[in-house]
DNA sequence: GAGTGGTCTAGACCACCTT
DNA sequence: AGGTGGTCTAGACCACTCC
């Protein structure tokens, strides 16, 4: 920055100085709400904007810390702290010597980041990849509850997908999912059926929609006749019901999903801390 | 530190210098394994030792960053980074202007940090505190599976507790839990029955055992006759089975727990990211 | 060797809490 | 006023990757 060594001389960064006035040292923080936001949070916000705007896409290399520091007229340390947090939130991934990249669901290592079902014995790799089968695909007008979960209005167009995931030939997960029509315009059965790998990777590549976090609600339920038949279990077999709302940047809901998991040979794993 | 401004002169901190030799600049990182560990990680390790050793107990104020920096002969920034990570792991809690404290389960705000069951409508506060009832308490020799989960040997003494948690008068959780005998020596039915609040708070206060993280495995199961009767549901009612191993510092297992949750009016909430 | 992220330092100042 | 954590800077050097 344009600043002489021995302290003093307040910064005048590009980012809007939050609490201290634009010039003349630090204001006594007026009268109303504090509303103080540190510089690195502002930088974080700016980086988030670029991510939301699609300026940098999943997998992309973003500018170096030094370049960003220059662009925002702050020190490298401040940019680092902003990136640290975005990286902790799984929005960015640092790679020493190479740079910082936009996180993606397309990497082998995080293929099933949101799928918490694991075989009771052995690890996930041991059972091979999941076999996917689309049972149904349609475009419809959102019923009240679906609309509510997706932050839409009743009647807004949505896509509905029903599919089964099998492990080693055993149908294990039956799920319905709903996607808002606009962001996924052009989604087709063919696209879904031809795609290999995690569904969220497809969403990124084809629609630029990156799922960032999700909320799940779990319950134990008895299988209804249809579900039981699809999953190959007896009627009223206990199943794990997993209801998920997945969000993209900005906490915008982008998917509502209802799954029924067989848990006789698998379990839902969760780490508490 | 004793160090003149313009660079050079390698540090000679109290902590064992990891990869670069004790003197004469930076070694070319010999031949064998990298084994490089940054200073702040070493500091983190030292702080962890103090926590494990019980030098600072849950709720205690630990020395200030500046004092720790002096003690370890490193800069404040390095101590900060170590504390940052311990704080992110919920082992320490920073409070601006006051200091850094050892995290505890005894605070109101985190009373149910490990209990993910929530009412379907309304929040947790709306339903009032859980009513606890101890059904059984005994001291026994660990069967093979319990011993295995707790990292003990079959036949080692353990405590077994069976209890019910009710919300607004409705029995909702039935759980059995096992604790290793040695760390919990002196545990009695009276202690358990008289205690108000989260069980993990009791463990901290009475036994100095702090639960730091836990692994849970969830399944949907059908209620057996006894569980159904206790929880007031029909036989083979679907219940959420929650199996938990809780760990203290150092990843030492300190509790094995098997719970059966009614999920007709509650759900298990999980956030994915 | 150049470029990137990663570590470490030293010092200034701010925000918050206590006395 | 003095102490604590929180932010920000500037600069040095290290580890890693690629050319």
TrEMBL record, chains A, B:
InterPro entries: Bact_HTH_transcr_reg, Chorismate_lyase_/UTRA_dom_sf, Tscrpt_reg_HTH_GntR, UTRA, WH-like_DNA-bd_sf, WH_DNA-bd_sf. PROSITE patterns: HTH_GNTR. One of its GO terms (molecular function) is DNA binding. Residues 1-11 have a biased composition (Polar residues). Keywords: DNA-binding, Transcription, Transcription regulation. Coiled coil: none annotated. Residues 1-31 are annotated as: Disordered. Pfam families: GntR (PF00392), UTRA (PF07702). Residues 37-105 form the HTH gntR-type domain. This is GntR family transcriptional regulator.
């Amino acid at each position: 920055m344009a600043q002489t060594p021995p302290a003093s001389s307040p910064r005048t960064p590009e980012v809007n100085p939050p609490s201290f006035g634009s010039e003349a040292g630090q204001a006594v923080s007026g009268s109303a709400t504090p509303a103080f936001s540190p510089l690195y949070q502002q930088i974080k916000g700016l980086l988030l904007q670029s991510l939301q705007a699609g300026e940098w896409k999943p997998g992309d290399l973003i500018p170096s810390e030094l370049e960003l520091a220059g662009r925002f007229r702050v020190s490298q340390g401040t940019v680092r702290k902003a990136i640290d947090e975005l990286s902790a939130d799984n929005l960015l991934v640092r790679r020493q010597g190479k740079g910082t990249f936009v996180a993606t669901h397309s990497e082998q290592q995080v293929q099933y980041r949101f799928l918490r079902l694991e075989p009771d014995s052995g690890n996930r790799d041991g059972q091979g990849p999941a076999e996917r089968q689309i049972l149904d695909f349609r475009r419809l007008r959102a019923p009240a509850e679906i609309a509510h979960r997706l932050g839409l209005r009743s009647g807004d167009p949505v896509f509905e997908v029903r599919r089964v995931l099998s492990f080693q030939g055993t149908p294990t997960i039956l799920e319905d999912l709903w996607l808002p029509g606009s962001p996924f315009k052009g989604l087709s059965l063919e696209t879904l059926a031809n795609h290999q790998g995690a569904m969220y990777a497809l969403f990124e590549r084809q629609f630029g929609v990156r799922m960032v976090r999700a909320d799940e609600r779990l319950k134990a339920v008895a299988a209804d006749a249809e579900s039981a038949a699809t999953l190959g279990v007896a009627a009223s077999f206990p199943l794990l019901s997993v209801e998920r709302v997945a969000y993209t940047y900005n906490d915008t809901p982008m998917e509502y999903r209802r799954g029924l998991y067989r848990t006789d040979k698998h379990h839902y794993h969760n780490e508490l801390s």
